[in-house]
């Protein structure tokens, strides 16, 4: 699809939406497909796009029980970074970050990727030690990360208060390549690009069962819009993965928690980067519309609701007001919640399952959005070739049985 000229965009923007065409085809389910992706978020749409573009599978369907981008893709704080501790994680997230850098051009769709820098604060001696360990591990793995003194941290983010607070800032780790993107645009961009390659995107189509043949392999999915036959099913359903896996008798080591965020009234550009604090716990950036985007920790209880406890938001706002006193008079516009699925080692599962033809991409906790293009890319490889990509090979289900854990609880930089 060719890009519009600036004049065409202006004319259409002032037309009251007259003449606008849908960004992707409103497909009806076919009786059968070569592969079906369950979940119409960024990861599922990304997998379908790469399946069609790189692996030649054209007869693909993405089944979404609601609307495109209505799940976690549209319910997050859009932070992108790759400064995880272990080599396996750094490789996965940096693969995603490299794809982010050219994703707008790749999809011919502005996903508004903004590499403004992600700064992670250290408030205690332990924080300092952990941060420097991360920095050294990242550099050894070829991932950028650097240490800032308190003064350098304030210079990078002038509105940050570093002293005379309960937990003074003792320094910070900075990944300059990190940043943010527009979550809705990511879903829409992948949906449009996948649709243009022939992928059927089917909304309001909930999977209610998975059928297996006499040998135990996948042969069809049952949906609210009828039976769809397929030999390959890739599940990318975020917090509802456990529900889908239960349909074939698989129990994965997952717990689902509500995760909340909130935004303020819009103000002029004042916040130049992303700042995260695990000790005080909150993180903050500013959207292109001027809103302060504030993230909180997960709630303490498991739930499939897209809302959480008010005290979690209150705690996050207290932390923001301590670190950035000038925001104390800001008014909050709205809050929301998503459902995150968390594994024991806080790292994802991107793998084949014991059921032939069934593949799963889950367990991202609070790190799913930042991995979107990389996750979709390696998941597509796994589905198409029935074997993992070298990057996602360590992220198996069996690692929890064999003890080959990738423990990223600290690097996740969020309380979960």
Alpha carbon gap, first and last residue: 42 Å
Number of helices: 11
Bulk shape: globular
Taking the sheet with the most strands, its summary is:
8 strands, mixed
Over all CA atoms, what is the radius of gyration?
Answer: 21 Å
Question: What can you see in these coordinates?
Answer:
- Helix 2 (42-55) crosses helix 10 and helix 3 (87-101) packs across helix 10 (372-385).
- The protein folds into two domains: 26-78 and 183-253 and 345-402, FAD/NAD(P)-binding domain, CATH 3.50.50; 111-177 and 255-342, D-Amino Acid Oxidase, subunit A, domain 2 (D-Amino Acid Oxidase, Chain A, domain 2, 2-Layer Sandwich), CATH 3.30.9.10.
- It is α/β, with parallel strands linked by helices.
- 28% of the residues lie in helices and 22% in strands.
- It has eleven helices and 19 strands.
- Helix 2 (42-55) links the parallel strand 1 and strand 2 (60-63).
- It is globular and about 70 Å long.
- The strands form four sheets. An eight-stranded mixed β-sheet has the order 5-6-4-14-15-16-13-17. A six-stranded mixed β-sheet has the order 8-2-1-12-19-18. Strands 9-10-11 form a three-stranded antiparallel β-sheet, with no helix packed on it.
- The model has no long low-confidence stretch (mean pLDDT 93).
- It starts with 5 loop residues before the first helix and ends in a 14-residue tail after the last helix.
């Amino acid at each position: 699809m060719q890009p519009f000229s600036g004049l065409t965009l202006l004319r259409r923007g002032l037309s009251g939406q007259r003449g606008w065409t849908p960004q992707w085809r409103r497909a009806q389910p076919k009786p059968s497909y070569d592969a079906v992706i369950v979940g119409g978020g960024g990861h599922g749409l990304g997998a379908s796009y790469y399946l069609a573009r790189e692996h030649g599978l054209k007869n693909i369907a993405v089944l979404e029980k609601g609307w495109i981008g209505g799940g976690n893709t549209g319910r997050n704080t859009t932070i992108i970074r790759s400064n995880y501790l272990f080599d396996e994680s750094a490789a996965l997230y940096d693969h995603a970050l490299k794809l982010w850098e050219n994703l707008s051009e790749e999809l011919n769709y502005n996903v508004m990727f903004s590499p403004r820098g992600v700064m992670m604060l250290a408030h205690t001696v332990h924080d300092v030690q952990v941060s420097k360990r991360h920095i050294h591990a990242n550099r050894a793995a070829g991932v950028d990360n650097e240490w800032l003194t308190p003064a350098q941290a304030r210079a990078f983010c002038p509105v940050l208060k570093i002293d005379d607070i309960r937990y003074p800032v003792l320094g910070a780790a900075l990944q300059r390549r990190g940043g943010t993107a527009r979550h809705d645009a990511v879903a829409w961009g992948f949906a449009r690009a996948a649709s243009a390659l022939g992928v059927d995107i089917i909304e309001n189509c909930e999977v209610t069962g998975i059928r297996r043949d006499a040998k135990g392999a996948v042969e069809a999915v049952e949906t609210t819009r009828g039976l769809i036959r397929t030999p390959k099913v890739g599940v990318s359903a975020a917090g509802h993965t456990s529900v889908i896996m239960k349909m074939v008798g698989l129990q994965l080591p997952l717990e689902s928690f509500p995760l909340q965020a909130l935004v303020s009234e819009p103000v002029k550009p004042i916040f130049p980067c992303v700042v995260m604090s695990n000790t005080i716990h909150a993180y903050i950036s500013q959207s292109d519309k001027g809103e302060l985007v504030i993230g909180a920790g997960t709630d303490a209880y498991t739930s499939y609701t897209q809302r959480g406890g008010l005290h979690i938001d209150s705690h996050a706002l207290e932390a923001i007001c301590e670190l950035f006193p000038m925001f104390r008079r800001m008014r909050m516009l709205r809050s929301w919640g998503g459902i995150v699925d968390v594994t024991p080692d806080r790292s994802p599962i991107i793998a084949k399952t014991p059921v032939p033809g069934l593949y799963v991409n889950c367990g991202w906790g609070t790190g799913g959005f930042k991995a979107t293009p990389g996750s979709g890319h390696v998941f597509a490889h796994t589905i198409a070739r029935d074997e993992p990509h070298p990057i996602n090979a360590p992220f198996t289900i069996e690692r929890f049985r064999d003890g080959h854990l990738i423990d990223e609880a600290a690097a996740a930089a969020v309380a979960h």
